[in-house]
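tool_call: predict_structure(chain=1)
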Amino acid sequence: MEQKILDSRISGMDLETDRIILEAEEVLTVDVHAAKNLINSGHRYLDVRTVEEFENGHVEKAFNIPYMFSTPQGRVKNPKFMEQVLSVCSKEDHLVVGCQSGVRSVYATTDLLKADFKHVCNMGGGYIAWVENGFAVKKPKMDL
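tool_result:
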């Protein structure tokens, strides 16, 4: 009972939210400038946004594995996320994980660390911060 009281003070919400906050504190989050430097030095960029978000524009050289899917009931976690990541990455790969704003990527990075990925960090601010800083993006070609 004492643990519940202590945990609920973290977010003032519920125990599940508190658990996520505590786990997120273990995730290394870097700003977009550091992320760009890591990517330029050979880290791979895992974009965990939806396919639609990714197709509307993404960090150059990124690969996309959605962490969540949009459904009529709201967003749901991709049940094959880890399987899909493991099909293209090893647990020794150096990864920068990003999403739209930096929230989904914290969850994804947490899951990757729990699965024993060794060199993973979250890009704070996500794609929004990347664009706001004027960094190169790949956008779809528009037909005229």
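agent: The CA atoms of residues 53 and 100 lie 8 Å apart. Proceeding to next step.
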